[in-house]
Design brief:
By secondary structure, the chain is an alpha/beta fold. It has one domain: Alpha-Beta Complex (2-enoyl-CoA Hydratase, Chain A, domain 1), CATH 3.90.226.10.
């Protein structure tokens, strides 16, 4: 599900979960656990296997699992994204293909983001689902004012467009993606670990404060909408439309 290898004390995490690395309860539960296991690595590189970094939430599982599944899934999504966002060591996202919806959020949670192909964007509103607080604030941290357009218009950007708004820092040829990500990780890891961790915490503090305020305000409504049977019927229609 998440393959872990080591390159000169840099942990490389490869999501390998179905054809598009869709985010389900199992993958989201695994990510914080794996991050804990590599906590002493100098840095982390997160990438995907296949043509997608992650195409986002497994909407079929949401529609089929109903309210009971959603009640477990949404907290797991927030915990996984926050674990990546607040990991104390450098985290480089090597976006090897499509990074959509929740996949875009995972990419945005990385300190540095490289992309070699595919599209990236937030497609939640196109599918009719709202944002939990944690993913929304991670996106606001990553791209600032551009987050509003990404969220409300559900745009999908190519790598060059993503660079323009700061969602991606560099575009890289596919065969150079992992070597470049490792090189960037080594560079970030040159700082003393405790200094890097403090600087990262300081930079992320406004996002964390907004999360702490927004979560109790919004999560009940987010859960209600995600759990509604009418939404699950619409998700099935949405998935059928993508298949035609």
């Amino acid at each position: 599900m998440i393959e872990t290898t080591e390159h000169d004390d840099i942990a490389v995490l490869r999501m390998d979960h179905g054809p598009v690395n869709a985010l389900d309860l199992e993958l989201l539960t695994a990510l914080p656990r794996v991050l804990d296991q590599v906590a002493d690595a100098r840095a982390v590189v997160l990438t995907g296997i296949g043509r997608s970094f992650s195409a986002g939430v497994d909407l079929k599982r949401i529609a089929d699992g109903g309210a009971e599944y959603v009640a477990e899934f949404l907290p797991a999504l927030s915990v996984a994204a926050l674990a990546l966002f607040e990991h104390r060591r450098p985290v480089v996202g090597a976006v090897n293909g499509h990074a959509l919806a929740g996949g875009c959020v995972l990419a945005a949670a990385c300190d540095l983001r490289l992309m070699s192909g595919g599209t990236v964007g937030l497609t939640e509103l196109a599918a009719g689902v709202p944002f939990p607080t944690v993913p929304l604030e991670i996106m606001r941290h990553a791209v600032g004012p551009a987050a509003e357009r990404l969220v409300l218009a559900a745009h999908r950007l190519d790598p060059a467009q993503a660079v323009e708004i700061g969602l991606v820092h560099e575009t890289v040829a596919p065969d150079a993606l992992l070597p470049t990500a490792l090189d960037r990780a080594v560079h970030l890891a040159a700082a003393p670990p405790e200094v890097y961790a403090l600087a990262k915490s300081q930079l992320r503090r406004p996002a964390r404060e907004r999360i702490d305020v927004g979560t109790p305000l919004d999560e009940e409504e987010v859960l209600r909408i995600w759990s509604a049977p009418a939404l699950h019927a619409k998700l099935r229609d949405y998935l059928d439309s993508l298949a035609t």
